[in-house]
Amino acid sequence: MGRKVTVATCCLNQWALDFEGNCERILRSIEEAKAHGAKYRLGPELEICGYGCADHFYESDTLLHSFQVLRNLLESPVTQDIICDVGMPIMHHNVRYNCRVLFLNRKILLIRPKMLMANHGNYREVRWFSPWNKLRSVEEYFLPRMIQEVTGQVTSAVAVTSSCLVRSSRLNFVASPHIQMGRDGVEIFTNSSASHHELRKADQRVNLIKAATTKSGGIYLYANQRGCDGDRVYYDGCAMVAINGDVVAQGAQFSLDDVEVITATLDLEDVRSYRGELCQPQLESDFKPCHRVKVDFSLSGCDDVYLPTHQPIEWHFHTPEEEISLGPACWLWDYLRRSGQAGFLLPLSGGVDSSSTACIVHCMCVQLCRAVEGGNSRVLEDVRRVVGDESYHPQDPKELCARVFTTCYMASENSSEDTRNRARDLANQVGSTHMNINIDVAVKGILGIFSAVTGRWPQFRASGGSARENLALQNVQARVRMVLAYLFAQLSLWARGRPGGLLVLGSANVDESLTGYFTKYDCSSADINPIGGISKTDLKRFLLHCAERLQLTALRSILAAPPTAELEPLTDGRVSQTDEADMGMTYSELSVIGRLRKISKCGPFSMFCKLIHTWKDALSPSEVAQKVKRFFRMYSVNRHKMTTVTPSYHAESYSPDDNRFDLRPFLYNASWSWQFRCIDDQVSIIAFLSRSEREKMIRGAARR
Fold first, then answer.
1. Is pTM, for the whole model, over 0.85?
2. d(Cα 383, Cα 404) in Å, to the nearest integer?
């Protein structure tokens, strides 16, 4: 009797509604799995249509085309003699379900609807699908005629092979289903996912999977999507196989490969021995066992004594700086190659944010050259199509940057020579095609129109103007830069005699978006923004990483300079305006506030109550109160800007993205009168206490 099984899981770079491409990638993964001896292949969630179809799930076309792809898979000789587990939407009794479909040799074995829906953060599955609430029950599902012509079968939710039990599972913090399944004899758990990247998240995923099989033993297969499927998130792979708490096979977290298959050979007796000591018999009186579907097929062979099994491996986790250099870069490449454009244009100011975007594009070119060097023919084909040269073979990242990346420094009379030089030096080191543009003529032309109509000419504060004039003069500079960026994106390649246009890249970080510290419809208004979900603190660490690993020495002077928008007149040739002075708080303070607002669900009063402890060594309660109130005023006054903000790479759990992740009003009562009065009352109470009494009260509150 065979006891060893070879199973496969995979990462696929699927694209929403790209049924032809999705089908081709699924078949490639099955072919690779069979080539490695696997008898079972697991794919990502909703891989047939793509996970990010959003409201297209409402359309009957999406269901129709998914079944058409399923028919192609059933009829393909590639899918013979291997159990294929694919994901697609299915409607049953006029209700849509997110399903797994398992088939073998042109016969459907079962359809398994998802039970635990992802409905938090970026996920809105309950909007399109209903959870299957009939635990361990089976219903008949009548297949469409096109499928019946191939199989003629109707099947259900749990399968058994002649040698082991296989069951779909989901990781869940409250009630993980694998516990009950394991006690019912299930030995192989499968998790088909569409899990997106967030900084510092990979270890949580790995630890959850290891813990799932540590508790009650078993083999755990995890499949995930990879890449940008048409939205703000990047699915970061990490396919893996674990057994009894140990990872034995893993895929890459970030990669330019559209298909990655992970296989492992494992001994089922290891599961049985592990459980023999830990697990007790099922004692619940109302226990309902899983429904079994008998299949005349074995995952193991008869003579497998000499077949080696996979051994535990140590998982390598990327640092946050490495994650920034890899995830957003892969996301940019997917967007570029699928958009049909010929490259990127970036307004490069010489500051931390735009320099971070430039470095991410450079990292993209580094990865492309490595992929081509490693023999990835599909990447080479895409690069040639983007640059418009069928004979091109990229070897040097700087040379590739010159073809796909254009930067421009947009100077005004308020720009310093220091930032101009920093932008030029960085452009030279990353290899971009760089331009110097002066916007003063355009700014004066716009102000001339205003003056001709009103008879007034606004002045900066430094020249005696009001705060309103000062802000308007800053905004007109910023908005002119946006208009010029799009003009040069459309026509700069035309001027060089090359076909195509460029995508405009934005460079506003997550902290600036949180406070609204940017001009609406300025250079933050771009096509896409690879750093819009990353904090200023992490971006600085990323630039230091690039300076050391990629020898981009120009970044050191950029990191040493104070962040500034350079929109107000210079003082003796030097910058007189800084970002942190304008905001009234540092970027590190903003990161703390952002996490409290989103992750800890704090309003103004709760945030104050937490920060008087967190910042007690640096700020008095009254100073904390001022920062909290200033933040919420800025946040509420500027929240409307988030409704039009550039689509950004999601990387932070406290992102203020208004599209789907952080749903809030955009018209607030910015006085927050009731909330701020509660804060003021507490400050008054603390002020009347002696220092010892105040510390005693704070310690007591902390204990409670």
1. yes
2. 9
One-character DSSP codes across 650-702: ---TT---TTTTS---SS--TT-HHHHHHHHHHHHHHHTS-HHHHHHHHHHHH
- DSSP code for 620: -
User: How many other C-beta atoms lie within 10 A of the C-beta of residue 608?
Assistant: 25
Q: Which residues contact 601 (CB under 8 A, 6 or more apart)?
A: none
Sort strands 188-193 and 219-227 into parallel, antiparallel or unpaired. parallel
pLDDT attached to residue 567: 74
Which backbone phi and psi does 503 adopt, to 5 degrees?
-85, 135
CA distances from 371 to 138, 256, 364, 379 (A): 46, 7, 11, 7
Check residue 299 and report its DSSP letter: S
Q: Strand order of the sheet with strand 433-438?
A: 433-438, 405-411, 344-347, 503-504
Among candidate residues 520, 508, 21, 599, the one with its CA nearest the CA of residue 258: 21
- The answer to whether 581 and 641 are in contact (CB under 8 A) is no
Helices marked H in 49-201: 60-75, 125-128, 145-148, 178-183
- What's the pLDDT at 157? 40
Indicate whether 573 pLDDT > 80. no
3-state helix vs strand vs coil in the chain, percent to 5: 45, 15, 40
- And the tokens for 308? 């080696």
257-281: average pLDDT: 88
Q: Report whether 103 contacts 79 (CB < 8 A).
A: yes
End-to-end CA distance of the chain: 60
Phi, psi of 606 (to 5 degrees): -60, -40
pLDDT digit string, tens, across residues 504-528: 999 989 988 888 888 888 877 899 9
> Three-state DSSP class for 164?
coil
Give the C-alpha separation, 8 to 537, whole Å. 39
Q: How many other CB atoms are found less than 10 A from the CB of residue 285?
A: 4
- CA 511 to CA 622: how far, in whole Å? 23
Q: What domains does the chain contain, in order, with CATH numbers?
A: 4-317 (3.60.110.10), 321-438+484-565+572-581 (3.40.50.620), 584-703 (3.40.50.620)
SS3 235: strand
DSSP designation for 241: E
pLDDT tops 60 at residue 643: yes
138 band by pLDDT with thresholds 50, 70 and 90: confident
- How many Å apart are CA 113 and CA 102, to the nearest integer? 11
What span, in angstroms and rounded, lies between the C-alpha atoms of 394 and 402? 11
Confidence of residue 163 (pLDDT cuts 50, 70, 90): very low
pLDDT confidence band for 173 (50 / 70 / 90):
very low
Residue 618 in tokens: 């640096």
Residue 439 near residue 481 (C-beta atoms within 8 A):
yes
Which H/E stretch holds residue 267?
Answer: strand 259-267
Q: Which DSSP helix (H) or strand (E) runs through 504?
A: strand 503-504
| 3-class SS letters over 332-388 | HHHHHHHHCCCCEEEECCCCHHHHHHHHHHHHHHHHHHHHHHCCCHHHHHHHHHHHC
Q: What is the pLDDT of residues 320-376, one digit of tens each?
A: 999 999 999 999 999 999 999 999 999 999 999 999 999 999 999 999 999 999 999
State the Cα torsion 429-432-437-442 to the nearest 10°. Answer: -140
What single string gives the DSSP state of each residue in 98-120?
Answer: EEEEEEETTEEEEEEE--S---S
pLDDT band with cut points at 50, 70 and 90 for residue 282: low
